[in-house]
Specification:
alpha/beta; single chain; 45% helix; 6-stranded parallel beta sheet; globular; 18% strand; binds NADP nicotinamide-adenine-dinucleotide phosphate
Length: 476
């Protein structure tokens, strides 16, 4: 039977956590016939993509991210009431060739408030931002009958338009756009502050005017200090980093923080229910999924001899994580050395075993995993690794590699194979260093395309293992 298929579509999507989340869910529910990928779709190709999805028998749904959340609506057959009012869908369900647009951010926000026992009925709420996520926030605040909601946004007109449309839909709640801080005096204290802008997210360190997020939020809370209730909550929709400037400042002021990871996990679980129906295990795996997302594995890739098994344990120790070396696990589990597996089952047999072993460990939180030099050459293995954790390329020049490799050539079947290739008959592994380097360089070039896909590359040539670890910790 062909696997059921889903994907996240948008641009950019390469750093999306969704493929890892759905790999985690399907793995823990023991559902093997389910595939999920990240698909980069440019705006001009959205129409064609959606038409193909309608025709494709195996696709059961899509996640939709920037820039298609709004533009996709006109291509769908049915919209939920939330989607109609919010004007954006983040999930598409395919039901008998019909496409139904959902907004699971609403569910994620509701469940986060519920989990933290943050009750907003009859309360005053202050919201930063007026984009798509702020509209989902407004929907929840309206349905839960908050008393008063103020929106502050760079672009005042956008906040004004949002307030007006939600004021019409939810007459019990007073929605208002404000143009600057502090807001007008009100008898009601603010019970909940929400950041629905990317300010403070990885890659968004400053306001549009160039002020540092931490400085901006210090000013923000200061100007609201007389209006914030004693039992107030602060909810940042951002999930990377976990401790955002918005939440760190709130904490210092004794305000209860709520991060965006709860919302992310809740909306993903809800998405699974929409596509695949309820499952008794879904609630149970939620806390495990959260733990995994906070501590996704780090994969060290690179040519053999680059130092993955030296650097890995030092990195793991520094992070308080465990270290796993895939080659050692393969030897332990198969009861054979890597050389024996190559000799008896060939490279393809070895790659199959390698794929199986990686699939058993790739979703383990708090793990540093050293990959074999050729692990990324198999597409299905590479995709599984890219979905489940952060891939790091440890690079080195051929001369450095050869020097390091010479220390232990017997454990390196591929090196022996490379140096013994018939089209390089002149090479004597003990003496002909130049020819070996030429050969190694050409082999390295073939693999470098795979290695270079890693979002993080560390050039290790002139660095000690400790220095490499330091760079990794600073950059991840
Ligand atoms: P969006 O539609 O692009 O809206 C962004 C909003 O933030 C707009 O109001 C924009 O102001 C404002 N903004 C942009 N850059 C800013 C900056 N540097 N300083 C201050 N304000 C800025 O994005 P969105 O979909 O609403 O997403 C907003 C945030 O929510 C993102 O960080 C996203 O990751 C997060 N989110 C989290 C979840 C979750 O599951 N946890 C789900 C959805 C979204 P203008 O109107 O003036 O441009």
């Amino acid at each position: 039977m062909n696997p059921a298929r889903a994907a996240v579509i948008g641009n950019p999507v390469s750093q999306s956590l969704s493929p890892g989340i759905f790999l985690f869910i399907s793995h823990h529910l023991k559902i093997s016939n389910f595939d999920y990928d990240a698909e980069k779709v440019e705006p001009e190709n959205l129409d064609k993509f959606i038409t193909n999805v309608k025709k494709d028998q195996n696709t059961i749904g899509l996640n939709v991210t920037i820039p298609h959340k709004e533009s996709v609506l006109s291509k769908l057959d049915q919209l939920t009431p939330e989607v109609r009012l919010i004007g954006a869908a983040n999930v598409i369900q395919k039901s008998k060739h019909r496409l139904i647009g959902h907004n699971t951010d609403v569910h994620g926000i509701e469940r986060t408030l519920e989990k933290h026992k943050c009750h907003i009925t009859g309360k005053r709420v202050f919201v930063l931002g007026a984009g798509g996520a702020a509209r989902a926030v407004a929907f929840v605040l309206g349905t839960q009958k908050a008393k008063q909601v103020e929106f502050l946004n760079n672009n005042f007109d956008r906040a004004e338009a949002l307030s007006q449309s939600f004021a019409q839909a939810f007459p019990t709640t007073q929605f208002r756009a404000i143009s600057q801080l502090p807001p007008e005096k009100s008898t009601d204290p603010i019970h909940l502050l929400i950041n629905s802008t990317p300010l403070g997210m990885k890659g968004h360190p400053t306001t549009k005017k160039g002020e540092l997020a931490s400085d901006y939020f210090a000013r923000f809370y200061d100007s609201l200090s007389h209006s914030i209730s004693k039992n107030a909550y602060a909810f940042d929709l951002i999930y990377r980093p976990e401790q955002t400037p918005f939440l760190l400042t709130a904490k210092k002021l004794g305000i209860t923080p709520m991060g965006g990871l709860d919302m992310l996990v809740e909306q993903a679980i809800q998405t699974w229910r929409i596509w695949q129906g309820p499952h008794p295990e879904l609630d149970r795996i939620q806390s495990q999924l959260m733990d995994y997302l906070k501590h996704r594995p780090l994969f060290l890739s690179g040519f053999m001899g680059v130092g993955k098994t030296t650097i890995g344990p030092i990195l793991a120790k520094k992070m308080g994580w465990q270290f796993l070396d895939i080659d050692s696990l393969i030897e332990q589990k198969s009861g054979m050395s890597i050389s024996q597996i190559f000799e008896t089952q060939g490279e393809s047999g070895f790659r199959e075993i390698e794929h199986k072993i990686i699939s058993q460990y790739c979703l383990k939180p708090r793990t540093v995993i050293a990959l074999g030099g050729g692990a990324l050459s198999i597409l299905s293995t590479r995709k599984m690794i890219e979905k489940s954790g952060q891939l790091i390329f440890l690079a080195a020049q051929p001369e450095t590699l050869l020097e390091r490799l010479k220390a232990q050539p017997n454990h390196r079947p591929l090196l022996k194979k490379i140096l013994a290739k018939p089209n390089f008959p002149r090479i004597d592994p003990r003496t002909d260093i130049d020819a070996q380097i030429v050969h190694l360089t050409s082999f390295l070039r073939q693999r470098e395309t795979d290695y270079n896909r890693a979002p993080l590359r560390i050039d290790t040539d002139n660095l000690t293992p400790e220095m490499v670890v330091q760079q990794i910790v600073e950059k991840i």
